[in-house]
Amino acid sequence: MNAPVNPPAEIQFGIAWNWQYDMDFVLLLDQACHRAGLSSYLVNHHNLQEVTADAEHERIKFRWFLDRASDEDKNFLRLNELLHAHGTAFLNAHHHYLRANDKAEIHRELLAAGLHLPLTLILPPHDRQPSVDSKLIDALAKPFVVKPAKGCGGKGVMTGATRVEDVTCLRAKHRDQRFLIQQHIEPQMRGGRRAWFRVYHVCERVIPCWWDDRTHRYAEFTDGDAGLVNVAELERIIRVIAKASGLDFFSSEIALDQQGRYIVIDYVNTPCDMRLQSKHANGVPDAIVHQIVGILVGHVQKQIAGSPRLCYRRAHVNHHA
Fold first, then answer.
1. What number does CATH give the domain 119-183?
2. CB–CB of 61/11 below 8 Å?
3. What angle is formed at CA 109 by the lines to CA 108 and CA 114, rounded to 5 degrees?
């Protein structure tokens, strides 16, 4: 293959997105890049085909990339694969995402790492084994949670299951998936709140916050929460999950159960929902979103500063979809 006539443009941070509610977060990232002196490029449906062609013919190079689209839209996978092949560094490399997205597999790894998880029964796909031994289901405490091994955002999850028919019905709707049948966890009350937490891991930084599993409302930790929650234990748990998953940016749900144990409920959630609380009642507190944006951009800036420069001309202008 002949070398391109002109050296490719070098973009320092690319961001792919396809969810309409991601716009605020993506624009905040773009603005933070501009303030930090980083060139950025936003990729969505409007310019995906063009950017993919430019990457394939090496008319454009990305130093770092955050892919928040290919988990839902396979049209973005080609660009992801091209960038990997051409040496782009990724926040949440796709092969780590695929592995961590399988709850059945990551369950085994986290259990082996010594974390407290709900009592769990893992069932094979419906297409491989259509029937379920009712005795296994009858032995579970009621209610229990039924969830597919793959997927995010609560899709296909039933939280108040009590019968084998509930399990059978869900498995029939997702015939190629393994299913996790999990013990229901009732959290303690701490300071008038359900002791249920969403904990973010962002490039080795840990950000815990309250998250109500019933209302899905978030709240920031305050200094007054220090005596209510073992923050050090939440940080330890999330670092174990980060090591097992290989991911840079994700969240986990953790609950303090009636026996005083911190139980990991939702192991790895990525891409994280970054809707602003100021615009959505069940969104993430704005201060946490801004903190995450700063950490992500700061991480990319630090990594670029500490790595050899590439022999590409730099793209000085921030590009928007």
1. 3.30.1490.20
2. yes
3. 95
